[in-house]
Write a structure and sequence with these properties.
Length: 395
């Protein structure tokens, strides 16, 4: 990586602001998956000679204090994982933070309250964003970005604070994520298979445009399939296709017409009679009927995709192949996940729901890299860079 990391600077004894990604799923104040907290441990442990002020966002409080989106449970969990006290400060700027920092010794770790409780965090008004960033940076001397999942955002705690602190370096998670995605981005076209599913065509346009010319084949699945089918003039019945997204699909196909032979759409689907008895049946793309909702790729497509994935030299997968939370529409996703696990090539998964599918099958150890950031990994593969990484010190 061409950016400095915590291994390139001496932060011993320094007060360091560390942006982590503790945006964990919560149910009634309980953390249901602490993967993101665990992912920050290597950096926190490596900086055990510093005074660490950890900050993060959680959820979408949109600039207002919302107790349901407090980071307090994360301090408790982090303390358990580290085996030491992690005081929680119920603010992220101002006197409370200053007082807590004044009492810190080297080796101490504190966690601040949700940065998104202040509108400055996500503000599009640069002055407002920077004013908040300045307050956030005030008690610290140096900055470490270890929040890979937020590094595609030009937010105060990721991007803004780099204007007020020096050095600004990458944490170990950011370093690992970026080096894996860099390797993927620069993979030779030969044997590079991209699998794209999920719902929102809108979110995937950039990555389609960027990766289609770089890969050997792009396998499309998931709900976004039906935007492409509709654009091609097929009947899609009640299948998922938000208003106007067929136009987006058509625009992508027009822009990519020189590479379109590499984009593979499903050959069969599994659809449900949602207007009637809720029975399911397989159908060709041109045989979807009104009142039926196509919710998964069919068995022929699943086999074809799995064979291509298994034989690939490089695979990137984002987004489930179907409505995998509901049986039997999990089949396509499970088959692709299994093939990923069996593929000896270099394989990377990005995106919350595809990660969930692979974890559900206990295949995560068989994957070279499971990204902690869905949006961030897509944006990296779109542009080959991320604002929150670009803002760090050059090596
Ligand atoms: P990711 O988080 O992996 O990037 P998205 O957020 O874009 O993926 O979409 C994931 C969601 O799309 C899942 O909840 C999944 O059930 C749903 N989904 C995928 N295919 C279909 C389909 N054919 N019909 C309905 N929902 C689908
Ligand atoms: Mg999702």
């Amino acid at each position: 990586m061409h950016k400095k990391t915590i291994n390139d600077v001496d932060l011993k004894g320094k007060t360091v602001l560390v942006r982590v990604d503790f945006n964990v799923p919560l149910e009634n104040g309980r953390i249901t998956d602490a993967t993101r907290i665990s992912a920050a441990l290597p950096t926190i442990k490596a900086l055990s000679g510093s005074k660490l002020i950890l900050c993060s966002h959680l959820g979408r409080p949109e600039g207002k204090r919302n107790p349901e989106e407090s980071l307090a449970p994360c301090a408790v969990r982090l303390a358990e994982l580290l085996g030491k006290d992690v005081p929680f400060i119920d603010d992220c700027i101002g006197d409370k933070v200053a007082a807590a920092v004044a009492n810190m010794k080297a080796g101490d770790v504190i966690l601040l309250e949700n940065t998104r409780f202040y509108p400055g965090e996500e503000s599009k008004d640069k002055e407002q964003m920077l004013a908040f960033a300045k307050e956030l940076a005030a008690p610290a001397e140096a900055f470490v970005n270890d929040a890979f999942g937020s590094s595609h955002r030009k937010h105060a705690s990721v991007y803004g604070v780099t204007q007020f602190l020096s050095p600004c370096v990458a944490g170990l998670l950011v370093e690992k994520e970026v080096s894996m995605l860099q390797k993927l981005y620069n993979s030779p076209q030969d044997g590079f298979i991209v699998v794209l599913g999920g719902k929102k065509v809108k979110d995937k346009i950039g990555v389609i445009k960027s990766l289609l010319p770089r890969c050997e084949k792009m396998l499309i699945g998931g709900a976004m399939t039906y935007s492409f089918f509709k654009a091609k003039g097929y009947e899609i019945g009640s299948s998922y296709c938000p208003e106007g997204s067929e136009t987006l699909a058509q625009e992508v196909m027009d822009a990519m017409k020189d590479h379109l032979d590499k984009m593979i759409l499903p050959q069969d689907v599994n659809m449900q009679n949602v207007a009637g008895d809720h029975s399911t049946k397989y159908a060709a793309p041109t045989a979807i009927e009104p009142g039926w909702d196509a919710q998964d790729i069919g068995p022929e497509t699943a086999k074809m995709y799995a064979d291509l994935v298994r034989a690939a030299k490089t695979v990137f997968w984002n987004g489930p192949m179907g409505h995998f939370e509901v049986k039997p529409f999990d089949q396509g996703t499970l088959e692709v996940a299994k093939a990923m696990g069996e593929c000896p090539g270099f394989n990377v998964i990005g995106g919350g729901d595809s990660v969930a599918a692979v974890t559900q099958m206990h295949l995560e150890d068989k994957i070279d890299h499971v990204s902690t950031g869905g949006g961030a990994s897509l944006e990296y593969l779109e542009n080959g860079s991320l604002p929150g990484v670009d803002a760090l010190d050059e090596k």
